[in-house]
UniProtKB/TrEMBL annotation:
Catalytically driven reaction(s): GTP + H2O = GDP + phosphate + H(+)
Localization terms from the record: Cytoplasm
The EC number(s) this enzyme carries: 3.6.5.4
UniProt-listed HAMAP family: SRP54
Main function: Involved in targeting and insertion of nascent membrane proteins into the cytoplasmic membrane. Binds to the hydrophobic signal sequence of the ribosome-nascent chain (RNC) as it emerges from the ribosomes. The SRP-RNC complex is then targeted to the cytoplasmic membrane where it interacts with the SRP receptor FtsY.
Family statement: Belongs to the GTP-binding SRP family. SRP54 subfamily.
Protein name as annotated: Signal recognition particle protein
Alphabetical list of Gene3D superfamilies matching this protein: P-loop containing nucleotide triphosphate hydrolases (3.40.50.300), Signal recognition particle SRP54, nucleotide-binding domain (1.20.120.140), Signal recognition particle, SRP54 subunit, M-domain (1.10.260.30)
Organism, as annotated: Sporosarcina oncorhynchi
Domain (SRP54-type proteins GTP-binding): residue spans on this chain: 270-283
Location of the region described as Disordered in the Swiss-Prot/TrEMBL record: 432-444
Keyword annotations of the record: Cytoplasm, GTP-binding, Hydrolase, Nucleotide-binding, Ribonucleoprotein, RNA-binding, Signal recognition particle
Amino acid sequence: MAFEGLAQRLQGTLQKIKGKGKINEADVKEMMREVRFALIEADVNLKVVKEFIKTVSERAVGQDVMKSLTPGQQVVKIVQDELTNLMGGEQNPIQFARKSPTVIMMVGLQGAGKTTTTGKLATVLRKRHNKKPLLVAADIYRPAAIQQLETLGKQLTLPVFSMGTDVSPVEIARKALEEAEKEYHDVVIIDTAGRLHVDEKLMQELKDIRELSKPDEIFLVVDAMTGQDAVNVAKSFDDTIGITGVILTKLDGDTRGGAALSIRSVTQKPIKFVGMGEKMDALEPFHPERMASRILGMGDVMSLIEKAQDSVDEEKAKELEQKFRTQTFTLDDFLDQLQQVKKMGPLDEILKMMPGAGKIKGLENAKVDESQMGRVEAVIHSMTIPERTTPEIINASRRKRIAKGSGTSIQEVNRLLKQFEEMKKMVKQMTNAQQKGKKKMKMP
Ligand code: GDP
């Protein structure tokens, strides 16, 4: 997971100071030495580390902290605040044009994830902002890049504007804007050419496209895994063409986090989104305070709720509630639930968003066995419809057949049936309690 090392070190260091009823300058100094080391290990830009340590130290040795009743906790709060500030403070939303269409230019080096992110961004714009985006293939040097965008467009049922490789990118942009106007697209996302390195010809071309299309946003896509290189790339793109924000990709990988923590400070430009996977729904708005909270092991309940809202189908939720109430909940519904939870993303990532999860013994490095969920699904799939609706009929010979059919064991089938029974019992108790208006209920 991203930030793993940093999170462990910082949490360890802060844990030591947190409970202290009294702290002095020497304590703060000692703690800051460890924090400094943790940040350097995480590949954070050295200048950024220095400033961070200075700010936190100054605030931490302030009289109001030292004399307070809970100085340790206050220091932790200061670290959290400053970590949030370091990453940009508030979440920075997309700037839409007052007059449609909003033009977004996507820039970045080859392999950073620019084309993939173009598709993901269009998905976000359509789903969360109700927009009708037009994707523009302006990388004329790599026919494969145009094809890649067209394939994404098909997959997402989004229109892609392309004119092949013989027309200049500026001309493509011009025609795309005309097309957008004609077809009432309110957002135009231009996927520009990438290079292996920053080069002058490319920068000139980007400037020309910028002049013509007057973008509302210029998003630089950088790969979080490249650490300080990503920061340098951001600085040079910003110096030459001026970017309005950064999209940091591959934050689902085991990056140490240096880029995420340094980019804002070095370029003064916000990270607007982060890429959390290869799939088209894996682009998330970047929330500095939530990220700081996750790094410090305080969980991220807001993101968890949003994820749940995104994945849960409201109609189904209502239906389910009704089934709970009338106690007609079947194994098929159980399967449905399982699939909805899976849609929220990898379970170990979800667990880490829960406050205090890091403190539960053995959970800090928990790797949820997702194959286990697959086995449960297989077991249910091997049942007949009557078995799923009335599991009571599943006798020994049926259990044997189901185990064989699903490639599992009789024990696993038994375990699932037992869990399902317990869940039903719990639901029954809860509904009874609700009906009787009891305030307290016993949960097994
Ligand atoms: P481009 O050359 O910048 O257009 O890069 P592509 O869009 O072709 O992406 C390069 C590779 O990075 C592809 O294999 C993508 O699937 C992958 N990729 C892009 N974004 C992410 C991300 O957020 N997480 C992961 N794990 N992979 C990503």
